[in-house]
């Protein structure tokens, strides 16, 4: 690259400081194209920020296989011990806008794009193993409660607690959000979870259900509400500083990857619905199996081009990895790619950060920003089937059939989720609550009380009744913390 300043069309720019005017004190000439181009570009520097997960931080890294799981999956990324695959990560908060403070209490996005030699595998997870809702019909409403009120343009505690108290399936995730893990100190101090149930399939055509876990090797570390307020008073960018700064100093964070594996037929037998995103699979039933580790070791050269433009979608799976009947996963398979087509444009997968490192050949044509042209390798092969040796389907990449039976209907996702029900919404939050020591419980109560302070009594009472059903100590603890604030 030369150090000659040029227009976007490559012509040398005679001045980058003085506009062309009619006389020294006269107006600017419309023909000053170099100036117009500069101003027009400034007007177009912002693209739509993500509607959720707008504020993010990321880096490149390397995944290394340490244990053999080829009995479960033929995915090339896991083909042999020692195999390395490049990846790019992006971590994020959910509700805050692009300029929001990093150290806010919120769920964190935890996304990994593995550039495998059979296509990109995107693991688009969170730092929590569960989510607030189990049916995607509720997702846009839930997100509206996390964003700004249409009249006040402020976040609304009333909206949040109204929704949560009317949605008991949220109790598990609410308990995690207001526990210590709801405000990690840095992106390096948290786990990642695929959260959904996915599937693995092997060369024999056998399918297994799977959960993905990525455990931090840096250890868990969190901010209390008071500590987070202090941090935010001094910097809004604490995560970017920690992640970028650490990698810049040669401190490369690592996570260990595990899977939980469930034989396909077990899904009929587990007391809880294994495709319910508000539930975990207890480790005692499905122990963690170690797979490998990844290290983040390279910062992006350009945040916008490589982190903002990074487009993760759960639809990006590779042979050997598949979906499951999880309703939330099925909706995300549609909506993430759709969001990127809106945010970045039809051909967002051609952007260098998203482009697979393996050959890409398909018949999608034309459209805005298609700079790769026809990706078939032959101008006559622009439809399929053809006689010009164009790309052809790969029957071997077909996943085994999914064994599903049942009548098509709108099944009530709340069936069996009452206390004592087959898919009880209360016993997993209870198991979590009972793991907390007294200090952790005290912080949970005060974090919840701070967030509930000032909401209407009827909404608070409805939520407290839900906490009571998890554990009487839970409801009482939050009540006492609320009274202390009164
Ligand atoms: P286990 O005792 O086998 O596992 C409990 C897990 O909870 C730990 O492995 C750890 O997961 C996680 N954990 C530990 N401390 C905290 C904390 N302060 N806040 C949040 N999570 C914590 O029990 P079960 O597998 O039967 O699960 C019991 C409960 O633990 C669940 O209801 C769920 O709330 C929570 N949990 C379970 C996970 C799972 O996949 N089974 C994953 C995460 C949480 P990790 O090692 O991933 O940090």
Describe it for me?
Helices cover 27% and strands 15% of the residues. It has 12 helices and 10 strands. It has helices spanning 33-43, 139-146, 157-165, 171-177, 225-234, 238-248, 303-308, 327-344, 427-435, 438-452, 457-470, 472-485; strands at 56-65, 84-93, 108-116, 119-126, 192-193, 198-201, 207-216, 254-263, 289-298, 321-322. Strands 1, 2, 3, 4, 5, 6, 7, 8, 9 and 10 form a 10-stranded antiparallel beta sheet that branches. A hairpin with a 2-residue loop joins strand 3 (108-116) and strand 4 (119-126). The structure holds NADPH dihydro-nicotinamide-adenine-dinucleotide phosphate.
How does the SSE layout of this entry go?
Layout: H1 33-43, E1 56-65, E2 84-93, E3 108-116, E4 119-126, H2 139-146, H3 157-165, H4 171-177, E5 192-193, E6 198-201, E7 207-216, H5 225-234, H6 238-248, E8 254-263, E9 289-298, H7 303-308, E10 321-322, H8 327-344, H9 427-435, H10 438-452, H11 457-470, H12 472-485
Antiparallel strand pairs: 1-2, 1-9, 2-3, 3-4, 5-7, 6-7, 6-10, 7-8, 8-9
Helix pairs in contact: 2-3, 3-11, 4-9, 10-12, 11-12
Bound molecules: NADPH dihydro-nicotinamide-adenine-dinucleotide phosphate (NDP).
Q: Gist?
A:
This protein has 486 residues and is α+β, with helices and mostly antiparallel strands. The protein has helices spanning 33-43, 139-146, 157-165, 171-177, 225-234, 238-248, 303-308, 327-344, 427-435, 438-452, 457-470, 472-485; strands at residues 56-65, 84-93, 108-116, 119-126, 192-193, 198-201, 207-216, 254-263, 289-298, 321-322. The structure holds NADPH dihydro-nicotinamide-adenine-dinucleotide phosphate.
């Amino acid at each position: 690259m030369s150090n000659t300043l040029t227009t976007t069309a490559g012509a040398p720019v005679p001045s980058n400081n003085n506009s062309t005017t009619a006389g020294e004190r006269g107006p600017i000439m419309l023909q000053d194209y170099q100036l117009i181009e500069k101003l027009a570009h400034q007007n177009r520097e912002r693209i739509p920020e993500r509607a959720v997960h707008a504020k993010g931080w990321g880096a490149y890294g390397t995944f290394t296989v340490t244990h053999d799981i080829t009995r479960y999956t033929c995915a090339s990324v896991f083909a042999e011990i020692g195999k390395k695959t490049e990846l790019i990560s992006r971590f994020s908060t959910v509700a805050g806008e692009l300029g929001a403070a990093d150290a806010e209490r919120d769920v964190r996005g935890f996304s990994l794009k593995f550039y495998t030699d059979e296509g990109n595998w995107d693991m688009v997870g969170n730092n929590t193993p569960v989510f607030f809702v189990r049916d995607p019909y509720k997702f846009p409403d839930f997100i509206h409660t996390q964003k700004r009120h249409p009249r006040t343009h402020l976040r609304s505690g009333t909206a949040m607690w109204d929704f949560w108290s009317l949605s008991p399936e949220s109790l598990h995730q609410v308990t995690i959000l207001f526990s210590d893990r709801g405000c990690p100190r840095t992106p390096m101090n948290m786990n990642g979870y695929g959260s959904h149930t996915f599937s693995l399939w092997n060369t024999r055509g056998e399918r297994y259900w799977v959960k993905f876990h990525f455990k931090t090797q840096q250890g868990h570390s969190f901010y209390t509400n008071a500590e987070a307020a202090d941090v935010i008073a001094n910097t809004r960018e604490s995560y970017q500083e920690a992640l970028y700064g650490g990698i810049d100093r040669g401190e490369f964070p690592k996570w260990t990857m595990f899977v939980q594996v469930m034989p396909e037929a077990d899904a009929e037998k587990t007391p809880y619905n294994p495709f319910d995103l508000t539930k975990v699979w207890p480790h005692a039933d499905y122990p963690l199996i170690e797979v490998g580790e990844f290290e983040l070791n390279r910062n992006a050269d350009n945040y916008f081009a490589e982190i903002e433009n990074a487009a993760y979608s759960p639809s990006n799976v590779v042979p050997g990895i598949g979906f499951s009947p999880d309703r939330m996963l099925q909706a995300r398979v549609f909506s993430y790619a759709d969001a990127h087509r809106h945010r970045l444009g039809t051909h967002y997968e051609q952007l260098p950060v998203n482009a697979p490192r393996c050959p890409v050949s398909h018949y999608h044509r034309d459209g805005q920003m298609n700079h790769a042209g026809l990706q078939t390798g032959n101008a006559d092969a622009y439809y399929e089937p053809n006689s010009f040796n164009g790309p052809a389907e790969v029957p071997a990449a077909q996943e085994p059939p999914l064994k599903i039976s049942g009548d098509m209907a709108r099944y009530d996702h709340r069936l069996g989720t009452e206390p004592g029900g087959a898919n009880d919404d209360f016993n997993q939050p209870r198991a979590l609550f009972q793991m907390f020591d007294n200090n952790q419980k005290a912080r949970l109560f005060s974090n919840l009380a701070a967030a509930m302070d000032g909401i209407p009594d009827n909404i608070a009472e409805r939520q407290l009744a839900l906490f009571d059903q998890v554990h009487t100590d839970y409801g009482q603890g939050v009540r006492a913390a609320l009274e202390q604030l009164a």
